[in-house]
Amino acid sequence: MALLLDIASWALLSIGGAFVFIGGVGALRMPDFYTRIHAASLTDTMGAVLVIFGIMLQAGLSLATVKLAAILLFLLLTSPTASNALASAALLAGLRPSGEVATDEEQST
Q1: Model confidence over 8-55: pLDDT tens digits?
Q2: What's the start-to-end Cα distance of the chain, in Å?
Q3: In this structure, is residue 7 part of a structural domain?
Q4: Between the CA of residue 104 and those of 60, 90, 94, what are the distances in Å?
Q5: Does the reported pTM lie above 0.70?
Q6: CB contact at 8 A, 57 and 45
Q7: How many domains does the chain have?
Q8: Which of 75, 90, 78 is nearest to 37 (CA)?
Q9: DSSP 3-state assignment of 61?
Q10: Among 2, 13, 25, 50, which is 20 to 30 Å from 92 by CA?
Q11: CA-to-CA distance for 97 and 49, rounded, in angstroms?
Q12: 53 in a domain, yes or no?
């Protein structure tokens, strides 16, 4: 049983690390700011969730697992909120998404 938990834990840790790596590469390869935020926020959140679950399997039922669950909850609440705030701030600062179609009011000016 311990071997099965170790295998599952290392699989989650490896997949989570791959998600974080792919998110970093995606942030470099995406064409504009908004697609970079989207790629990075999704993959980094999923990667962190998988890594924390892998560590929780290694920790077993202990106080460390409760602390990791609290960290996971905090991460799941703050990461999407931070990405949304960053995108909203960029939009308010005047950074337009690429491929956006101009409205009739913008075309007449």
Answers
A1: 999 999 999 999 998 888 888 888 889 889 888 888 889 999 999 999
A2: 69
A3: yes
A4: 60, 23, 18
A5: yes
A6: no
A7: 1
A8: 90
A9: coil
A10: 25
A11: 29
A12: yes
Residue in the block written with tokens 């609290």: 70
CB contact set of 82 (below 8 Å; sequence gap of 6+): 41
pLDDT beyond 80 at 106: no
Vertex 76 angle, CA 23 and 57, to 5°: 85
Structural domain containing residue 38 = 2-92
Q: Two tokens at 15? A: 């997949």
For the cut 60, the answer to whether the pLDDT of residue 109 exceeds it is no
Segment (H or E) for 107: helix 104-108
Residue in the structure block whose two tokens are 């491929």? 99
Residue 44 tokens, joined: 């980094």
CA–CA separation, 13 and 52 (whole Å): 8
Kindly give the residue spans of alpha helices, DSSP state H, lying in 30-103: 33-59, 63-92
Q: Is residue 97 part of a domain?
A: no
